[in-house]
Amino acid sequence: SIATFDKEYVGFATLPNQVHRKTVKKGFTFTLMVAGETGLGKSTLINSLFLTDLYRDRKVPNAEERIGQTVDIIKHTIGIEEKGIKLRLSIIDTPGFGDAVNNTHVEDYIDQQFEQYFRDESGLNRKNIQDNRVHCLLYFISPFGHGLRPIDVECMKALHEKVNIIPLLAKADSLTQAEVYSKKLKMRDEIKQFGINIYQFPECDSDEDEDFKRQEQILKDSIPFAVIGSNIQVDSKGRKFRGRSYPWGVVEVENPIHSDFLMLRNMLVRTHMQDLKDVTREIHYENYRANRSATDFLLLSFQLRKMQEVLERIQEQMQQSQTGTC
Ligand SMILES: Nc1nc2c(ncn2[C@@H]2O[C@H](COP(=O)(O)OP(=O)(O)OP(=O)(O)O)[C@@H](O)[C@H]2O)c(=O)[nH]1
Ligand SMILES: [Mg+2]
């Protein structure tokens, strides 16, 4: 009978499919931002990481397409589709810090997106909210210093409660392999020592397979990812690839021996995008909302106190005018 059928099979096993269908229809969104000192190759990496480079049939310019100094916050958005899955990927390029620019523009931008989302969420059109919250910040660290600079510490600490920070060792082609290794160690140490909370790769469950665990450990040990950016295509020994050519040889951006570029891109696009979004929603955005209601509460009690004062004054005046007429 139908009753026994219901007992045996309620039907919630289709939930993953339902969720999947709904998300597929809406499409995925992901927003990535870059920050760091001026001239460390942020705009160049964005260019090589995603914009012209995400597909095999990409068009890479042959001649160097000049990338100038970034003076405004610029949002690039690309819509990509793979096996029927749509992804709207936004990349926010920012002016690097220098003598005249500090890091507040990055912080302000992240806050503004949270605020916008908060308002949309409390508004009438909740179904069609555009999620522009920043899910990940690639923070560029100079390869030329002795580890982190004070500005790096200050900046990352100002941002670590608001966004998932992934530190990068910029322009890794200017360092030897041994230097990359020791700088990474030193920077990981300093990040811990200064209490900077960078994005934590989720802990593996103990029942996860060994291969997966090993991959995750490699990721953890590669922080800060050593990256090389280039916006030119090198033609070498009959092969064309994105790289940088020097008198003594050629570096390939996508060669895992030369840089962590591929590891970073795979991590962002293939393996950790959903976790970065979850952490943004569950931790950073919740933080923002909690702080916001705390400020709202302060404002409200301030206004209440003001109203009370006005009331008291009116009462006083009434009493005075009453005693006056008597
Ligand atoms: N050696 C080396 N040079 C790079 C690399 N990436 C970029 N450059 C060069 O560094 C210079 C600055 O690059 P940009 O991408 O404009 O740097 P940016 O961080 O965006 O600079 P701002 O916009 O001022 O913050 C350019 O001449 C690039 O060609 C790299 O990985 N290695
Ligand atoms: Mg730039």
UniProtKB/TrEMBL annotation:
Signal sequence coordinates: none
Gene3D superfamilies: P-loop containing nucleotide triphosphate hydrolases (3.40.50.300)
A biological-process GO annotation: cell division
Keywords: Cell cycle, Cell division, Cytoplasm, GTP-binding, Nucleotide-binding
Any one Gene Ontology molecular-function term assigned to this protein's record: GTP binding
Residue span(s) of domain Septin-type G: 26-295
InterPro entries xrefs: G_SEPTIN_dom (IPR030379), P-loop_NTPase (IPR027417), Septin (IPR016491)
Primary localization: cytoplasm
Localization annotation: Cytoplasm
Similarity field: Belongs to the TRAFAC class TrmE-Era-EngA-EngB-Septin-like GTPase superfamily. Septin GTPase family.
Name of this chain's protein: Septin 4a
Upper classification of the organism: Eukaryota, Metazoa, Chordata, Craniata, Vertebrata
